[in-house]
Amino acid sequence: MQLGVKTDPKNQWLLTENKLNTRQLGKAEALMCSGNGYMGIRATTEERYVGERRDMFIAGSFDSFADEVAELPNLPDVVGMQIEVNGHQLNLNQGEVSDYQRQINLKNGLLTRTFKWTIDDQSYQFKFERFVSMDNLHLVVSRVTVTALTTKIIVKIKSGIDGQQTNSGTQHLVEGAKRLFDDHYMQLLTKTGESNINFAFSTCHNFFDELSNPVQMKQQMELGRRQIFCKYQAELEQTESLVMVKYNTIVTDRDRDYDGQQLEDLQQFGLRELKTSSEQSFETLLSHSEAAWQERVWKYGKVAIKSSDSNDQVAINFARYQLAISTPEHDNRMNIAAKGLTGEGYKGHAFWDTEIFMLPYYIFTKPIVAKKLIEYRYLGLAGAHRKASDNQYEGAQFPWEAAWPSDGESTPVWGAADIVTGKAMKIWSGFIEQHITSDVAFGALEYIHATGDQQFALDKVNEIILDTAKFWQSRLEYNSTADQYEIHDVIGPDEYKEHANNNSFTNYTAQWTIQTAIQITDDLKANHPDKYHELDQKLNLKTTYDKWIACVDKVYLLKPNAQGIIPQDDTYLSKKTIDLSKYRNAEHVGGIFDDYNLDQVNQLQVTKQADVLLLLYLFEQKFDAQEKRLNWDYYEPKTTHDSSLSLSTHAILAADLGMQQTAYEFFQRACQIDLGPDMQSSDDGTHSASLGGIWNATVFGFGGVRLLGDQLRIEPHLPANWSQLSFDIYWQQQKVHIEIQANEFTVSTIDATRPISFNSQNQTYQLAQNESVTISLANMEGTLL
Predict the structure, then answer these.
(1) Mind listing the pLDDT tens digit for each residue in 286-303?
(2) Which of 90, 142, 445, 750 could form a disulfide with 246 if both were Cys (CB 3.0 to 4.6 A apart)?
(3) DSSP string for residues in 342-397
(4) Which of these three, 258, 281, 298, is where a domain ends?
(5) Is 495 a catalytic residue?
(6) Could you give the CA distance from residue 123 to residue 747 in angstroms, rounded to a whole number?
(7) How many domains does one find in the chain?
(8) Which residues constitute the domain of residue 39?
(9) Catalytically annotated residue among 394, 495, 498, 636
């Protein structure tokens, strides 16, 4: 697999850059981003360069500006600094750089950069280290080591808090107080302009010599607009080193662990966090963070791949790291953004990406996080009701783009310019890409089926599904001529087909939602009458149930044509076909828009991403293998894969169809979306759903794990390049280990408190505590151990 970063076959947790290319900064900034789910900081260098994106975000801190939709504000910079040696300000575009290496350790989040810099025949050694703590969510720690190699030097450092950051020009923060406490601790207070979220940024610096002895430094404070810095100066003899450790804490009055009521309380909260942390060494704080990484992340959902290409393991490690730093598991009022916390792309909003591509990872590896992500949607019901009402519908219509849960629809109205008209194109997704509502219901029920958490179903999930079914019933349009209910003017998963009628994915999932709501209502009536009465009061279930019964069997589900092809929508199969090889083989996605505008693409049999094929994957029990293969052969050649969501879905479906080599090729292409050689692919941030998709392709595709209703199926499909795949999942709240080799696979329970069962090749297996079964892939015969 060709990657845009260096890897080490002996340590598949390391990503390395051996040269700083100041014309292509964005790739490494996003891939080597540091974070902990509460905050994310791009891997910008300490010194500044033109074209950098010096971004730091805190999950959930949304703010609007004028008529723009809410976005995560770019917060004050706490990692940048100016360093001067013997009158030369550090800038790697000048002088000579050797032995350069920048590296992120995915295991513990430590970002390290080392190099030798020579200018005017004088050489200096630099080492920069920093991490965002997984132990203390508010803490960022940096360490800088400067060594005089060839001569005595004077080192000057200017470091502090720089609030002059924007979101591509938009300034969200109102300047607050700046001051120095105890001649050591700097603090900058600020708040968002419209959402009025208060922040306290606190910073201090400790200095040491090469033997870790404390060094007293003279300092001079400097205040600027939205800035507070301190300047330090030291003299070093040849071979001597100066070590600076910078401690930063960031707190907001939206934090769960902040219990104050006044701005002064927030100020003191931040200072206490800083003072406590700055009394500990860099190594001690890093060790605490490493332990938290192990406890909170790596002990869940372990995945090990033995492959002829060691970068396959790197890719799954990278995917899990990125999901960890971007998932706000500390707070159910927040969700996973499409770009995580790694860039300004999509403004920090959450999409259907969560339910279809990332929620499965947490359902099967850390269900408590999956539960919080569903709670976020429950908290968003008020905004979903408002959107439905504004559109003259009933029930809950979930927003295409979601920010703070009560905000409702957060999709911008206007997007890029049309290449033909030159006018800004309307972003119709926020208006008519409505399958998101089904996706939310689907993901929530997947959690219930996988965990058996029936209390959560009663508390929240049933209400979500019933409310979304109420929307779909009101959204259906009756065709009296055909005596059927249709859904017109939508966008399905294929966003190259706007204003489609009867998109198959949308219609199928709408019908599924209504059918599921009927089943839930029947169960509530029979087994939970008090809860039924409660939800009837909220949702008028008696009347709504009759409407569901009247329409559910008449929802129009497009059937295969004579060739066995399921139409993507009413008109897709009648549209013109063109040769897509130019665009499918292009180095960058979206090349078709160099030649066509969206209206023209809308009239072609061109698909952006899996649409009908996604339907076949998610609802596989409704379709036989021959149908799947016929539709694969028809739709995949017409798909440009311009969406980062597409490749992993195709990898899974190809594995299901027995096309292991094709599946493996799609898997590796999915891994290359961020990690690959396209040096601009991640400028706006990494692709969270694609990263979830890498895990899905590994476990669901090659591992053969599938949730079919409330049944677990395991039927592996290893590619020829892999000799072994092993991973852990949770099923019915029990930990299960699966190890797959070329000819057999073993399923083991780990400290199970009750038996678990799974199906494989139409045979059911049941395992008790610490029991295993090995199943031959040749004849699928199981042997209990």
Answers:
(1) 999 999 999 999 999 999
(2) 142
(3) S-SGGGG-B-THIIIIIHHHHHHH-HHHHHHHHHHHHHTHHHHHHHHHHTT--S--
(4) 298
(5) yes
(6) 58
(7) 2
(8) 32-298
(9) 495
